[in-house]
Amino acid sequence: MDKIIRNFAIGLVLLIILAPLGLLAVGETFGEWGNEELKEKFGLVPEGLEKLSGLWSAPLPDYAFPDSGDSMSVAAAAYILSAVIGVVICGGLLYFVGKKVAKD
Amino acid sequence: MHIPDGYLGPYTYIAMWIIMIPIWYYAGKKLSVELRSKQVPLLALAAAFSFVIMMFNVPIPGGSTGHAVGGAIIGIVLGPWAAVIAITVALVLQALVFGDGGITAIAANCFNMAVVMPFVAYYIYKLISGSTEITSSRRVIASAVAGYVSLTLAAAVTGFEFGIQPILHHTAEGVPLYMPYPLSVTVPAMTLEHLFGFGILEALITALIFAYIQRTDTTILYGEKSIAQKKGRKGASVA
After folding, report:
1. pLDDT band at A26, cuts 50/70/90?
2. DSSP result, chain A
3. Where are the domains of chain A?
4. Which chain B residue lies closest to A64 (C-alpha atoms)?
5. In CATH, what number is assigned to the domain containing residue B139?
6. Chain B CA closest to residue A17
């Protein structure tokens, strides 16, 4: 079992390094438009949607530094950092909670 | 497939929280009873993998981008209930820190990606695999189909949640208050782009990882524990 875990972990590190490839895809995602985009598409921003959409300000919105401009290298660095944060928190949290509750 | 804040009205997002709370409770309870120390690294890796794989946006013809979720392989390897926990952790972090998926929509997003996906995938995999050998190539096909169908179905459910908004919430004049597009737009849009695009990616990822596990160590697969282990745990299960 240990060998397969190690290889999965190596695979995960590779995925983190390659993550900025995910930035290359340009286009819209259905149902995830910003308010401007929605106004262009539909003609108006629904009232309830507008109110709720500003509910939360994420510290790293869309896996980027807020107001960091258009630099691709900054975006790639932020993307990798986001992947590292994601892996460390998701993996770390489940590892420690898991070890606490696990039998034997 | 991450529904942002504002796209679901309160009827839907509150209903989804009411549905999800007992699911999370049961999944957590089941995990705390069944989880063995040796499986913990795998559980941690699963959540981390799901988080990262969702960052790989891929374009499809027509100008859309989307991603795989990893929910199918996690459901097959860890079992669907442990997958609920692993994928939920990834989705909550994405919403809180990265604004990917809304806060109000956390329960809806978890239902679609952390419940529908692993359960559908797990049972399709089981159904197609039947009683074949664990190393059978039929199981690789089964895992691919499981990935393909489960992601597409999760997308269709998301499309349904979107599409009922104009019916549930509109002004007296009929102007929609939340997601403005009706079912006739949202369900085909969500389903088709996953049917012809991202579903294929999920199928490939699922089959690839499954085939790798077949060649390396099948004892990590859910339900493939030794009989002695199962006997020792009689009466301990909450199921």
Report:
1. confident
2. -HHHHHHHHHHHHHHHHHGGGGGS--SB-TT---HHHHHHHHSS--HHHHHHHTS---SSGGGS-TT-TT-HHHHHHHHHHHHHHHHHHHHHHHHHHHHHH-B-
3. 2-101
4. B98
5. 1.10.1760.20
6. B52
